[in-house]
């Protein structure tokens, strides 16, 4: 299957589920359109993955991931079979190029392939390659800006194989950071003045890495990954209480840990997280012309740990909040509000993937 970073084919927007396969688990989101660019959250579900099933974005154990996808699909109660999947940013090479305006689709393909040869360190036959025209090139009315995206074929094929083994039909392969941006753009638009001119820093704190994106007016102006995530807290629990990794993760989520847990383990972890955030912000300031950030959004499974928002805001001296990709959406009656509050920040990518259903 070719990567389709463009829109879904067909105007009827058939039901499409966003399926986010990450190191810690599989998350599913299904949205419907209620008109006037408003959405309703129809279904969410998640299923944890055994440690080692997905490592650094690579599917290492197809059977375990397939089983988790099968369970999450069943748990959600959806009937939709079309899925949008995401690739981790580290496994996709993206490059913006300038090409003459007015080329046919075929001519664009030829040009993109010849340009891609310069930027991709693999033979083209080993690569899934796609492109989309962003719009007119700045300062050059006769040219257009084109985004090229390429990844190793086997990485795409692994995700496709997992979906197809569950009877699902992959329709879109996006980049996880682009999907997150799609979801966050909705939230930024709810800021004063529609967020115009605001510089927003998004920290997605995952199991192993924290993905940092700085956005202004819908454009990514800075991006990096830092090796910090929730697994560090889980490892601390393993060491402190002599548990297996799986038991530690489960008890960490349920809060079933001894009295000293918050003081001895959570507080130092939060200090570390705040340090990672402030360090990333300093990197941003020293490596770009920008000197301020208006808003920090925290997402990912760790974002809801009590005290994180407060300590980040205090250390960074910047307005900070936990982001829910479903803010302002209608919520189907089948979704439990308590579960949604606790888990929403970890659904950012899955929500952005599900929103691909509504793109023209």
Structural account:
It comes from Noviherbaspirillum denitrificans. Residues 16-184 form the SHS2 domain. This protein has helices at 62-76, 105-119, 153-165, 176-188, 231-241, 245-254, 261-287, 308-316, 337-343, 348-354; strands at residues 16-21, 25-35, 38-48, 54-55, 58-59, 82-87, 93-100, 127-137, 140-152, 169-175, 199-205, 210-216, 219-226, 295-299, 320-322, 330-331. With 360 residues, it is α/β, with parallel strands linked by helices. Among the domains are: 91-153, Dna Ligase, domain 1; 191-324, ATPase, nucleotide binding domain (Nucleotidyltransferase, domain 5). A hairpin with a 3-residue loop joins strand 1 and strand 2 (25-35).
| Separate helix tally | 10
The total count of strands amounts to: 16
Strand content: 25-35%
Low-confidence stretches: 1-11
The residue fraction in helices comes out at 25-40%
State the CATH topology of the domain at 191-324: Nucleotidyltransferase, domain 5
Averaged pLDDT: 90
> Which structural class should the secondary elements be placed in?
alpha/beta
Going by CATH, what is the homologous superfamily of the domain at 191-324? Answer: ATPase, nucleotide binding domain
Largest sheet: 6 strands, mixed
- Tell me the name of the CATH class of the domain at 191-324: Alpha Beta
What is the global morphology? globular
Strand order of the largest sheet: 10-6-1-2-3-16
What is the H/E string?
A: EEEEEHEEHEEHEHEEEHHHEHEEHH
CATH architecture of the domain at 191-324: 2-Layer Sandwich
- Compute the separation of the termini in Å: 21 Å
Radius of gyration: 21 Å
InterPro entries: ATPase_NBD (IPR043129), FtsA/MreB (IPR050696), PilM (IPR005883), SHS2_FtsA (IPR003494)
Pfam families: PilM_2
Protein name: Pilus assembly protein PilM
Organism: Noviherbaspirillum denitrificans
């Amino acid at each position: 299957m070719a990567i389709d970073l463009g829109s879904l084919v067909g105007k009827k927007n058939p039901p499409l589920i966003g399926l986010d396969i990450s190191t810690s688990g599989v998350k599913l989101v299904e949205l419907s359109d209620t008109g006037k660019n408003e959405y309703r959250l129809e279904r969410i579900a998640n299923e944890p993955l055994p440690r080692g099933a997905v490592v650094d974005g690579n599917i290492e154990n197809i059977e375990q991931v397939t089983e988790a996808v099968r369970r999450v699909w069943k748990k959600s109660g959806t009937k939709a079979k079309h899925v949008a999947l995401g690739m981790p940013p580290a496994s996709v090479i993206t490059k913006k190029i300038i090409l003459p305006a007015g080329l046919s689709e075929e001519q664009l393909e030829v040009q993109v392939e010849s340009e891609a040869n310069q930027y991709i360190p693999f033979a083209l036959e080993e690569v899934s390659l796609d492109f989309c025209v962003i719009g007119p090139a700045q300062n050059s009315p006769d040219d257009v800006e084109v985004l090229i995206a390429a990844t190793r074929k086997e990485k795409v094929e692994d995700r496709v194989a997992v979906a197809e083994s569950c009877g699902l039909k992959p329709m879109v392969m996006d980049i996880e950071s682009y999907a997150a941006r799609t979801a966050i753009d909705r939230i930024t638009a709810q800021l004063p003045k529609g967020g115009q001119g605001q510089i927003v820093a998004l920290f997605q704190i995952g199991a192993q890495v924290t993905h940092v994106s700085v956005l202004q007016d819908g454009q990514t102006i800075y991006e990096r990954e830092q090796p910090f995530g929730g697994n560090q807290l889980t490892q601390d629990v393993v060491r402190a209480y002599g548990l297996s990794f799986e038991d530690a993760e489960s008890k960490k989520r349920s809060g079933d840990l001894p009295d000293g847990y918050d003081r001895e383990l959570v507080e130092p972890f939060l200090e570390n997280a705040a340090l990672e955030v402030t360090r990333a912000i300093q990197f941003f300031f020293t490596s770009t012309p920008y000197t301020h950030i208006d808003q920090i959004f925290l997402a990912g499974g760790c974002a809801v740990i009590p005290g994180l928002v407060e300590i980040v805001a205090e250390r960074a001296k910047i307005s900070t909040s936990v982001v829910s990709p479903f803010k302002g959406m209608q919520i189907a009656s089948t979704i439990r509000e308590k579960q949604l509050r606790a888990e929403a920040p970890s659904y950012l990518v899955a929500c952005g993937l599900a929103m691909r259903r509504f793109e023209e």
